[in-house]
Amino acid sequence: MYVAPLNAPPVTKAEFGFNEHHQNEVINYMRFARSKRLLRLKTIDSCFEELKDSRLSDETFTVDEVREMLDGLQAVVRGEVEMELINTAHTNVLLLRQLFSQAEKFYLRLQSDISELENRELLEQVAEFEKTDFKTADKINQETSKPKLAPLNEGGVSELLNKEITRLQEENDKLKARLRTIESQAMSALDEKSKAERALKDIKKTQGEQQLTAKSQEISSLEDTVAALREDYERTLSANAVSQKDLQENLISSKHELLRVQEQLAMAEKELDKKFQQTAAYRNMKEILTKKNEQIKDIRKRLQRYEPNE
Predict the structure, then answer these.
(1) Final residue before a domain boundary, out of 93, 112, 131
(2) Could you tell me the residue range of the domain that residue 299 belongs to?
(3) Section 220-248 average pLDDT
(4) What digits encode the pLDDT tens for the residues 287-301?
(5) Which entry of 16, 80, 194, 230 is 20 to 30 Å from 179 by CA?
(6) Where are the annotated coiled coils located (predicted)?
């Protein structure tokens, strides 16, 4: 037999870890089990009383008669105990059926540890609970109706599904808001890129116009010089035919000078273009365009991550 330790603490409701509702359910089941147990014990007692009243009227019995009476009593008691054990097992199955049905409504999977059913320490706690708190609870619940397992409807499942749908909708709204923010950032980056490109074009256009103006002024000056030389040449030719050769040479040299100046202008244009590319404004604009292109590539990758099919 199991003997409880002498210094064992008293058993309280908290040791079972139940809330008030489940505590009442345990009490109701123990009340039901006790009533069935008492009824079966009364039946066994009646078997002995019946034997006493029907067979023990004589004063002397033979050994065979005593053996016959004990065998008959054994058969009756054995049948009653076996019936009670079978009924208790079936009753426990029905109780588990109710619990599992309620759990499956909420898509839960309950598990049981069969080895704990033979834990002597826990069995002693249950026995102590039946002697103390169970009796107190009987007095409190005498005037109250016995609660039964509340039938489940689809409300619990619908509530869980509604909560899950609400949570998914909130996450979807957050993702949409984040996507809108990323799209606005992408549009801002594209606008800044367009502005930078236009500014770079304007700078190039301004520099080009300035260079063209300078070249045009030089060409105009050279053209004026050539025109003046022609006029001088014509006057000199008409006035003095002897100086015609000198004028032609001067004209040729002027043309060579014009070609040399044009070549210098072309070289100066290339040099100005090279210097412009080396200016801080050109480098800054080029760096800005490079950074904007990298930002746009990064934003496109992030958009592809949230909307891969688009």
Answers:
(1) 112
(2) 280-309
(3) 75
(4) 888 888 888 988 888
(5) 194
(6) 158-302
